[in-house]
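Appendix B. Chain record.
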Amino acid sequence: MATRVDNRATRTPQRRIARPAAAAAVLVALSVASLGCADLLQRSTKQSTESDVPEGAHLRQRAATKDLSVAGVTFDPKPEKKEQMAGYVDYIFGGMERLKVTATIVNKGNEREIDVPVVARLYKTRSGGLPQEEEEQLAAEKRTTIGSIQPGGRAQVNFVFTGMGQYAQSTHMLMHVSVDRAEGDTDVTNNVGRTYFWSLLGE
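Structure tokens predicted for this chain:
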């Protein structure tokens, strides 16, 4: 009588061995996919963060500039006429006892400026051979401070000089308005506004 061989005993271990191998392959695939998603998320977050930064912001942070400028000086009363001289302009005022000076200060830099000192100096000077590098005959001086000027912003300050009648007819004058903060300023040539003038009775 022939003996029947049961093959199930030999096949069963093979299936049991194959199942752990398949599970390991699935885990590896899931790990790779997870790492890929994490890398993709990290790249997307980085790109989103970079796109939120305004163009040129990094350059502005690295290249901060300071530049305060005297953009203009006006007077009350206004001058009645002006004469073009060699190298400067002479303004002619009528007789006056009081002169109001308004200066416009502009922040041309890219940083906020605080406590900006502005000075108006009235000098006696000589007619001709101007402007001078340094003035010596100081007649009067007024000071004020601007609390804050934003980048690209401007501010106006006023000064009032009295007793102007004593300079009428015979004295050539200079109104010298300046921002008295040169440290770190990239262009100190625009920190000053000069106005030469006469006050003439009967004009």
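Further analysis of this model is presented in Appendix C.
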